[in-house]
Amino acid sequence: MATVTLTIDNQKVEVEQGTTILEAAKLIGIEIPTLCYMKDINAIGACRICVVEVQGARALQAACVCPVAEGMVVKTNSELVRKSRKLTLELILSDHPAECLTCLRNTNCELQDLAEAFGIKEVRFTRGAAKSATIDDIDDSAPSIVRDPRKCVLCRRCVAVCEKIQGVKAIGPVNRGFETTIAPPFGKQLIDVNCAMCGQCTLVCPTGAIVEKDDTAKVWAALADENKHVVVQTAPAVRVAIAEEFGMEPGTISTGKMVAALRRLGFDKVFDTDFSADLTIMEEGTELIDRVTNGGVLPMITSCSPGWIKYIEHYYPDLLPHLSTCKSPQQMLGALIKAYYPQKAGIAAENIYSVSIMPCTAKKFECQRDEMYDSGYQDVDVVLTTRELARMCRNAGINWDTLPEEDYDDPLGLSTGAAVIFGATGGVMEAALRTAYELITNETLEDINFTAVRGMEGIKEATVKVGDLDVKVAVAHTLGNARKLLDLIRQGKADYHFIEVMCCPGGCIGGGGQPIPTNLEVRLARIAGIYKADEELPLRKSHENPAIKAIYEDYLEKPLGELSHKLLHTHYVPRGVYRKPEGLPEGDSDH
Q1: I want to staple 307 with a disulfide (CB 3.0 to 4.6 A). Which of 316, 362, 372, 518 is the partner?
Q2: Is the pTM of this model over 0.85?
Q3: H-type helices in 424-561, by residue range?
Q4: Is 101 helix (H, G, I), strand (E, B) or coil?
Q5: CATH of range 131-212; options 3.30.70.600, 3.30.300.30, 3.40.640.10, 3.30.70.20
Q6: Residue 131 has what pLDDT?
Q7: Catalytic residue, candidates 371, 457, 461, 544
């Protein structure tokens, strides 16, 4: 690869041809501020915060899109550059509501950080002179995500993630000039379009223009109600991310501290979603074996990621029979908390309030689905994201550093390493293979680590010898990669037995409800934490979990049995691209 040599702030630097000024500066320790830029996803030079002075150029250049050239001389901190950046930022702030103290992104807002870095103490321009959005334009129609166009800086990062990573295109620029806003098409709200509710937009938004719907008030109210028995469950990926909210490194395993924090918040019982992840393996593995041996629909595709489920309902409804009928671990445990747990604890089911802590905004949508009432009640009453749990802990004055390590409650708190790895892309597949191999062959695996399905490659494939059968599997993370596999299935070119799909980059560790920032480096650290947690547990195969064996003996009887089918399995429904308006006859909705 050809290289070029240039000078940046009096420092010589040699870089590959095609490198941008922004990237070249970073190589020599110079951080140029940005607002709209996201490496490899959104490099459009829209915000102009990254402008630099290039000798001989007629105007300042946007460093994020300007390629280097041989002999180029760049100034990143000249007086002209500083004045231009500050003026641009003042103009952005003049059109931004001064609601920092009441914004969910307060103290974790890139616009706020830039204002501090640039030393802005006042905004010289009239506020609201350009943008026409008002508080009435806030879109809180969806159970997962809230859009506030007043806080949008038109960076288009959310648009880029939705289109380029997820392939959904639920939102985009609407109108022109000062009237431009980022929104669903045709004046519709998020609940009415093909949004997967994945929340990846909330992770990349630099301000509070797109955030998770905050349901902490509902949980505080339940905790204060003496007539409610409030139960909580925690997902695998939360334990390796929650500590980031309290200044610890990504990937820090905080299972015991998290359990202790939840007890101090007032929850009556703290259960582990990992228990029902083990249960999922038993049900899903049995379902796969049944399909393979009895000529069922193949390939079978996992169904534990609600953003992925909503996506296939919108875009590939003809392929719904390929989905496993298993509910997600969250919903399996939710059903057991309202059906099995009341019998064990002697508590009336109607008095139980079920909360889950998830890395995922789509889980908020999932718990409200019509299909999730098989216990006779709403199986999960409220879903909180990792970020919301952190806010509750700060609200309660909980000092994370001094928390003790505590264990989950019985009978729904015991789990294995196979359940923990559900939090990483490839984890569900690996957990299933650990169990399927031993159940089919009656032999013990010499090496339970199926490394072929691990890692951040978009689509991973493997063939695993299980007895006399060569089991062909595939793993995809992000909806954009899922689309590639679904197209192969439609074309009859997918000769897999089993496919795992996770909606978010890296799997649940990169979910839309995780701490901000969530980038590649952070995702890799969380994945490392997930596999470390797996290795440290005494049991690492779902079928060896004694609590799973007990619940089948005492209650469920067997995988795919009558009661298991009622509580732990479900079906999914075709959806149009746009929701059918009220009163419109069936068949007339847009697709």
Answers
A1: 362
A2: yes
A3: 427-441, 479-490, 520-536, 546-551
A4: helix
A5: 3.30.70.20
A6: 58
A7: 371
